[in-house]
Write a structure and sequence with these properties.
The complex is a heterotrimer of chains A (about 290), B (about 350) and C (about 280). With about 290 residues, chain A is mainly alpha-helical. Helices cover about 75% and strands about 0% of the residues of chain A. Chain B is about 25% helix and about 35% strand. Chain B is built from nine helices and 20 strands. In chain B, a hairpin with a 2-residue loop joins strand 12 and strand 13. The chains are: A mainly alpha (about 290), B alpha+beta (about 350), C mainly alpha (about 280).
């Protein structure tokens, strides 16, 4: 199927570049990508395995590393379902209805993209920290939010909330409301319409949104760093743990932890490709 | 079951889609809503279905106000312009959908549903495609699936939005004859929207011609075609020549011709326009009597049983289009550039300012 | 007549969906975010001004915005090249390359930072070749630019790819039939139609880079006045329990980011008016 020759059918047409020019452009693009993407990626994996496989697994089996893995999974396990429900609700309201203030709402959903991760963490410190608005009240009742697990979860929820909504809104807008109207005319209830018509139509986009949301939830650094307090074995997520190890000049362990996150990223990219392929397939060739 | 719309007005933002529209379809009738795009016909259809809520006016279903009945309980079948088939369901599942989403106590057993869906698919001649997905079907097949799906819930009223709009000319013709036969079999009160006058006139029992959010005229195809209520209806239903003239006390003067116009007996020297279909233009080489307009043949298009002539009036240079049978054309032996005398038949006169 | 805020629809669940969306958004984002402005408002003006315009703060803004601009500009040159190659040419391994372009999206920023620091340090895989040439990347402002280029790349490439794929070939063919050569076609026909998407990608990359933290701090060296970015200054102040100082700098950055977004939206709106 795919034609893996540099000189393809376009070559002779009036609108193609000569083969030499093509080659130069491809080499130039790939060199740029190599310097900025491929070499650093390889460096992480090489750094992780520098002291051999057994050292690699030993670094990962450290109690502090395991605690960091657990906390990362825990935060994602709360943030992803919450943001899934939010994303579906927001996409339903925005994509299927016309109402005043819709564009403002759409813009607000992008808020975490516009705000520095550090500021995303700062807002929770200002609200729940000891000097914060609710700080004294919480301290009286001995509730700890920032520099504790709840703060990490909150920051994770904040930075990952747009992803599901952002995937679903354009998809659902493009599909319009006609199939849902047809379902209603045929007597389906609101819930039946959503469950049997809307959801199956967007399932691949939804899955992709969840994957992205999860990747961000597990990988967030800046926001979580601000609210974490960096207590080893207790409020360290995987990215924070990698930083601590790196700052302690324990490079191979730092890269071992980082390599887990690289695998997560690669799995995310592979899942993205798979979902793209699947959704193209299920859309079928309109004829 | 009959359906009636009374004084329907609908605005979208600042745009008025329907202005005080009245419309009625009797039990068992097949009615066409005919009009150019933007005339409000689809909006009216969606209001009949309960998909839109009018700003003013009421919908009566079998004489009963339907305002409080939402779209689920109206028991209408709606066929969408682009079919709106559920793309992730097979043909069978699409048709079965309406039966399967019924509340549990009203739902038929699955065996009955299967039997019914198969009957319906047979009715639309698609039982062999039951396991296919919409993306695998042709346009005409999708259309028939959409119809079977709408019929599955045994609607008392069937509404179709541009049912043949997205199809090739040949399939269009086949499908509309088939729809007519199906209607004669099932006798479900049906309303369909179209912008194609030929389609409306050929298929429907009655036609409502719409323009600018209003119903211009409603009647049988013969009535609207032969006695159009106004210039818009006349123009929309077919090709037209128009002749400017004046009417005074029931007598119209157009160029050299004088024609009785008893319907305008009160007109006092009013400017008027007479409309004539191309096939109602009589052509002669010689002047017989005084009542003809002199013209020059500019172009002849002779193929098939009808010959189309383009002529230009000698007196004011306005074009005239005429259609005559091939035999008549043979006997006239007219060529391009020659002189001819034109006599309009069945002239339909409208005053320039409506009374 | 009542003013209706929502058009009628037969679909259900609008109130529930919108209500939940607004509630969630308020609790998670709007209320906490507004805290920054309440906190800022509680400071007196001199105090705020002195903190926000201290030399160290000014240096950090210059670095954050300057390096973000430089990174976005580099991407504005190489991003179209990558997008072009990916959209138009076939070569072995293209699919893998295509997938990896999104890596900066998917890779946790801390990992990007570690990786870049390792590669560009004096004995790193790339750094060891640059060092003899007198080019120091790691622990200098140049390192910040490298990190921010990395972060912004997919924004530019992914904004351009769909446009390049949708570009009607017949327009290029028409230009060729009218006698334009390949370079003229690119310059006069293709580039103008890419401009809105390029602007979008550029501004997204820029906006993202301004606030970036994780990928920068490992490679930057973080020397006050030299290679300290504004987000890091916020963190430093927080670690010293200087909440007011952190808030002041955050407020400046927020306002700057929103102004930038506003300008970009305005530019996009204007260029879409032109092509519409």
């Amino acid at each position: 199927m795919a034609d893996y020759s540099i000189i393809d059918h376009r070559m002779k047409s009036a609108t193609g570049e000569p083969p030499a020019a093509r080659l130069v452009l491809i080499v130039l693009a790939l060199s740029f990508l190599a310097v900025f993407l491929f070499v650093p990626l390889a460096a992480v994996l090489a750094g992780a395995l520098r002291d051999g496989l057994s050292a690699y697994f030993k670094a990962l089996a450290e109690p502090d590393s395991l605690a960091a893995i657990r906390l990362t999974l825990f935060a994602a396990a709360i943030a992803v379902p919450l943001n899934l429900v939010f994303g579906v609700a927001a996409a339903w309201a925005i994509a299927k209805f016309d109402f005043a203030g819709k564009s403002v709402l759409t813009a607000l959903i992008d808020l975490p993209f516009a705000v520095s991760p550090v500021i995303s963490g700062l807002i929770y410190v200002l609200l729940f920290g000891l000097q914060g608005t609710l700080g004294p009240w919480l301290a009286e009742r001995d509730i700890k939010i920032v520099f504790a697990v709840p703060g990490i979860v909150l920051a994770t929820v904040f930075v990952s909330f747009p992803f599901v909504a952002r995937e679903l809104i354009p998809l659902m807008q493009e599909q319009g409301a006609e199939e849902e109207e047809a379902a209603r005319v045929l007597g389906a209830s609101g819930f039946q319409t959503f469950w049997r018509v809307t959801l199956p139509n967007v399932k691949w986009g939804l899955l992709y949104g969840i994957i992205l949301c999860n990747a961000r939830a597990m990988g967030e650094f800046g926001a979580v760093s601000v609210v974490s307090g960096h207590i080893r074995g207790s409020t360290n997520t995987l990215p924070l743990h990698a930083e601590i190890l790196y700052n302690e000049y324990n490079f191979s362990a730092a890269f071992a932890v980082a390599s887990l996150l690289v695998l997560l990223a690669l799995a995310t990219l592979a899942a993205k490709k798979l979902v793209e392929w699947k959704s193209r397939q299920s859309a079928g060739e309109p004829g | 079951m009959s359906i009636e719309a009374r004084g329907i007005t609908k605005k979208f933002g600042g745009y008025t889609a329907l202005k005080d529209v009245c419309f009625r379809a009797e039990t068992g009738e097949l009615v066409a809503l005919l009009g150019p795009s933007g005339s409000g016909k689809t909006t009216l259809l969606r209001i009949l279905a309960g998909l839109e809520i009018p700003d003013a006016g009421e919908i009566l279903i079998h004489g009963e106000d339907a305002a409080r009945r939402n779209v689920r309980d109206r028991r209408v079948g709606f066929v969408f312009q682009h079919y709106a088939l559920f793309r992730h369901m097979t043909v069978f599942e699409n048709v079965a959908f309406g039966l399967r989403v019924r509340p549990r106590k009203l739902r038929q057993p699955e065996r009955d549903i299967r039997a019914k869906v198969h009957d319906l698919l047979k009715l639309v001649q698609l039982d062999w495609l039951a396991g296919s997905y919409p993306s695998q079907l042709s346009g005409g097949q999708r259309q028939r699936v959409a119809l079977a799906r709408a019929l599955a819930v045994e609607p008392k009223l069937l509404l179709l939005d541009e049912p043949f709009g997205a199809l090739d000319a040949k399939i269009r013709q086949e499908l509309r004859r088939w729809l007519r036969r199906l209607h004669d079999e099932l006798h479900v009160t049906s309303v369909f929207v179209t912008h194609d006058q030929e389609e409306a006139l050929e298929v429907a029992d009655r036609v409502a011609v719409m323009n600018n959010g209003q119903v211009e005229q409603a009647g049988t195809p013969d009535e609207v075609y032969r006695r159009p209520a106004n210039p818009f209806v006349y123009n929309f239903l077919g090709n037209a020549n128009f002749f400017r003239g004046r009417i005074h006390r029931g007598l119209a003067r157009i160029g050299a011709i004088e024609i009785e116009a008893p319907e305008h007996a009160n007109a006092q020297d009013c400017p008027a326009v007479g409309y004539v279909r191309p096939h109602d233009i009589e052509i002669d080489r010689i002047l017989s009597g005084k009542t003809a307009i002199e013209a020059v043949v500019r172009r002849v298009r002779a193929f098939g049983p009808l010959v189309r002539l383009e002529l230009v009036r000698r007196d004011n240079g306005e074009p005239i289009e005429a259609e005559l049978s091939a035999e008549r054309f043979e006997s006239l032996k007219l060529r391009e550039g020659e002189r001819a005398f034109v006599k309009p038949r069945n002239l339909r006169l409208f005053l320039n300012k409506p009374e | 007549m009542t003013i209706r805020l929502k058009r009628h629809s037969v679909l259900p669940g609008f109130g529930l969906a919108l209500g939940y969306t607004l509630l969630y958004l308020s609790l998670i984002a709007l209320v906490p975010l507004s805290g920054i402005f309440f906190k800022t408002a509680a400071m007196n003006w001199d105090e705020f001004w002195n903190t926000a315009t201290a030399p160290r703060a000014l240096a950090s803004y210059r670095l954050s915005f300057g390096a973000a601009l430089a990174g976005a500009l580099i991407n504005a040159v190489f991003g179209p090249l990558v997008a072009w190659v990916l959209a138009r040419y076939h070569f072995p391994g293209k699919r893998v390359v295509d997938a990896l372009v999104d890596l900066p999206f998917a890779l946790p920023t801390a990992v990007s930072g570690l990786a870049l620091a390792a590669v560009f340090s004096a004995n790193g895989w790339i750094g060891r070749f640059l060092e003899p040439l007198g080019i120091k990347v790691a622990f200098t402002p140049l390192g910040v630019v490298v990190a921010l280029t990395f972060i912004g790349l997919p924004f530019v490439v992914r904004s351009l790819c769909p446009v390049l794929e949708d570009l009607e070939k017949d327009v290029e063919e028409a230009a060729a039939s009218l006698g334009a050569n390949r370079l003229q076609i690119f310059w006069r026909v293709i580039l103008p139609s890419l401009r809105p998407a390029l602007l979008t990608g550029f501004s997204l990359a820029f906006a993202r880079a301004v606030g970036e933290y994780g990928s920068v701090i490992f490679i930057a060296g973080n020397m006050p006045m030299v290679s300290e970015i504004a987000p890091l200054l916020i963190v430093t102040k927080l670690e010293q329990y200087d909440y007011a100082g952190a808030t002041a700098i955050a407020a400046v950055m927020l306002v700057a980011s929103f102004l930038l977004l506003l300008i970009v939206n305005l530019l996009q709106w204007r260029s879409s008016q032109k092509t519409a």
